[in-house]
Amino acid sequence: MAEFEKKNVLADKSYQFALKIVFLCKKLDSRKEYILSRQLLKCGTSIGANVSEANGAISNADFSSKISIAYKESLETKYWLKLLKDSKSLDESQFLELFEQADELSKILYSILKSTRINKPDN
């Protein structure tokens, strides 16, 4: 990371989470689990992509919209992780690690969303 870049914990966490999702989906693809893998890949990587877009927002409404999308994608990610676990496509330990990270992202995003929608008027 360049010296002039600010540390963004949410961006870092969502990026690291996306990497784990990419690696998991590659593993699932190698076992011919394409359908659930694609669903998880889309929403699991979309969290960080929308956080990145939010960081470049041009207004409070734009920021709030991107954070809202990231939050919804985190909820969807948790759904697909549960489905993969319950269908025996994902072992319990891997599920717990990823689910806890997705849940942490959900909580952070919800907290940001709540504070931006309540406390900040649009520019």
UniProtKB/TrEMBL annotation:
It comes from the Bacteria. InterPro entries: 23S_rRNA-intervening_sequence, 23S_rRNA_IVS_sf. Signal peptide: none annotated. PANTHER family: FOUR HELIX BUNDLE PROTEIN. This is Four helix bundle protein.
